[in-house]
Design goal:
By secondary structure, the protein is an alpha+beta fold. It is 55% helix and 10% strand. The protein has two domains: 11-112, no CATH class; 131-583, Cytochrome P450 (Cytochrome p450, Orthogonal Bundle), CATH 1.10.630.10. The chain binds protoporphyrin IX containing FE. It comes from Fagus sylvatica (Beechnut).
Length: 584
């Protein structure tokens, strides 16, 4: 990293420059995301002058930054008194403070603690490099290798090797500290005093999750988490098993038309997981929630293609891209459709068709909405946000887990045979039962190894609101902490030289033994207070589905399959997973 070294501060020259440029009174234009911002004053001139100074000649201290901000505030105050030029220069200094000064200061601060990384580039950070590296990685054939880190996260693969286990990268002017060191991961994720809250999600992601459980904080989160814990664990989860079995039966009915032929299972599991979450959490079928899922999927696509798009702050209020317009329409459509489902349920409660106590997740939410106690009551918007969160989180992730596990078993037919033996021993040809499900040891090992090699969620993030001490490091406010859990999953120092081989026997004595009690190296469901609330739901659904498939079919990988794991919010097979089905 180009770490700035200690040299005299240049604020006076900067102020001189801004004075010169005020008098120059030229027009400037800044093309951003295809939009030109036009204004008075010599913006480019000032920018150029600033960057003529080599970055290493700066001494970016907090005190200097404060002076810069004070100057801009002073100029803006003058504006209110009628000084128009002051507005331009004041606003300009604020922009420079955000897009240039702060990144350079943070880069310096982290560099002085030994945290290196690719250099910050004005406005874009490293987004262009990351985008290009991903594009290049996607064009490279992978064979059937499980060495997928360099494919799914090529920048992290390359920069961890170059800069170390923890390094600094830039999403535009947003600093992201990438952390793969287990001790630090544990410290962040186990924290319970809100030192590391969730990051504020970008507009598109917000449209998917709203302010639901995945994104909310504080009291609201605690209230909703309690509700979800109750709905997706213990007896409630046990009561969901018959609905899960019915969902798998619906899928296997379709499979009868594919016997002896090829079938694409990623799409099959998309329908299955949509059906399962609809039935278990919302008491409806996939068909009822179909358009919600379709709209959610479109939103996910838009979100994914805008991951590396940078927008000038506030520009969306003036000009909206077609993606922004479409995502707003989708958000409204999802809201209205969910409202319909809620209304129907309220009617059923009123007419006594369903009881007002117990029941599924939707029932608990509706009850909380109707609660007379204001501290327990949730608003309609909260209700909708929670439904959106669970429709999405409950479906996409398990969809990926099932597809990757079937892919692995289609290649490793010896493990497929082992798993089948276990299933037939426990259930024969009967439907899976709660007691047997807890005894599926080989299946658990296979699922864990699948989650290690192909974790559906490949990264977890948090932010730092106030300067904080993390391990031996001092992390400045506003730094985003980015934990790419897929990296330790593929680290040979942790798992051995055979790290990229499918070896479920690693987990034969449980996760603690497999990780040598170093739990943060295996994080498919996260850890600490914000770990996955649907963990038991997902593994139960996966075990039931795989058991019922193994009872009926043997499967091998189709020659049509092209191995290309890629991230579209979750890690998924880009071209689906085609297998050949053989009836037993
Ligand atoms: C294989 C399937 C799944 C995987 C790999 C997975 C992974 C994760 C991970 C890594 C987190 C932690 C995120 C963080 O710390 O920021 C998480 C949180 C969450 N998951 Fe899952 N998940 C899965 C299935 C599910 C299911 C089926 C549901 C719903 C029924 C669900 C609902 C949630 C929710 C609501 C949160 C947020 C919890 C909170 O912040 O309190 N997940 N999941």
């Amino acid at each position: 990293m180009d770490s700035p070294t200690s040299k005299p501060f240049f604020l006076s020259s900067m102020l001189r420059m801004s004075k010169d440029h005020r008098s120059a009174g030229l027009r400037w234009s800044l093309p951003l995301s295809g939009i030109s911002l036009v204004g008075h004053g010599s913006f480019l001139g000032l920018l150029n002058s600033c960057f003529v100074f080599p970055i290493t000649s700066l001494f970016p201290t907090d005190a200097a930054a404060d002076v810069l901000l004070e100057v801009s505030t002073h100029l803006e105050q003058r504006t209110r008194k009628g000084g128009k030029r002051g507005l331009h220069v004041g606003a300009l200094i604020r922009v420079l403070h955000k897009l240039w000064w702060t990144p350079i200061r943070i880069q310096y601060q982290m560099g002085s603690q030994g945290i290196k990384g690719p250099s910050y580039r004005f406005f874009f950070g490293n987004t262009k490099e990351i985008f290009n590296m991903k594009k290049e990685a996607m064009s490279r054939p992978l064979g059937l290798s499980h060495d997928i880190l360099s494919k799914a996260q090529p920048h992290i693969h390359s920069w961890v090797n170059k800069y170390g286990k923890n390094y600094l990268q830039w999403h535009g002017p947003q600093p992201q500290m990438v952390i793969t060191e287990p001790e630090l991961i544990k410290e962040i994720l186990n924290n319970r005093d809100s030192t590391y809250p969730k990051e504020e999600v970008k507009e598109y992601v917000k449209k998917i999750f709203g302010d639901g459980l995945v994104t909310s904080e504080g009291e609201k989160w605690a209230k909703m988490r309690k509700l979800a814990n109750y709905a997706f664990h213990g007896e409630s989860l046990k009561n969901m098993i018959p609905a899960m079995i019915t969902s798998v039966e619906v899928m296997l009915e379709r499979w009868k038309h594919h016997e002896g032929k090829e079938i694409e299972v990623f799409e099959e599991f998309r329908l299955l997981t949509s059906e399962a979450i609809s039935r278990t959490a919302f008491g409806s079928s996939y068909l009822e929630g179909k358009n919600i899922f379709q709209m959610m999927m479109k939103l996910a696509l838009i979100t994914s293609r805008n991951t590396y798009t940078l927008r000038f702050p506030g520009i969306s209020k003036v000009y909206k891209t077609s993606d922004e317009i479409e995502s707003e329409q989708l958000e409204k459509g999802i809201y209205n459709s969910i409202l319909e489902i809620i209304k129907k349920r309220e009617e059923k409660i009123m007419t006594g068709e369903v009881g007002s106590f117990g029941g599924d997740f939707l029932q608990l939410l509706v009850k909380a909405h109707q609660d007379a106690n204001p501290s327990q009551k949730i608003s309609v918007q909260d209700l909708v946000d929670e439904c959106k969160t669970f429709y999405f989180a409950g479906q996409e992730t398990t969809n990926s887990l099932l597809a990757w596990t079937v892919f692995l078993l289609a290649i490793h037919t010896d493990w497929q045979e082992e798993a089948r033996k276990e299933v037939l021993n426990l259930f024969g040809h009967q439907s899976p039962n709660p007691d047997g499900i807890t005894k599926l040891k080989t299946m658990s090992m296979i699922i864990n190894e699948s989650l290690r090699l192909y974790p559906p969620l490949i990264a977890i993030s948090r932010k730092v609101e106030r300067e904080v001490r993390l391990g031996k490091l001092t992390i400045p406010a506003e730094v985003l902490l980015f934990i790419p859990n897929i990296a330790p999953h593929h680290d040979p120092q942790i798992w051995g030289e055979d790290v990229n081989l499918f070896k479920p026997e690693r987990f034969s004595e449980g996760v603690a033994k497999a990780t040598k009690n170093n739990m943060p190296v295996f994080l498919p469901f996260g850890m600490g207070p914000r770990n996955c609330v649907g963990f038991n739901f997902a593994t139960t659904e996966a075990k039931i589905t795989l058991s019922m498939i193994l009872q009926r079919y043997a499967f091998t990988l189709s020659p049509a399959y092209v191995h290309s794991p890629f991230q579209l919010l979750t890690l998924r097979p880009q071209h689906g997973v085609q297998v050949l089905l053989h009836s037993l």
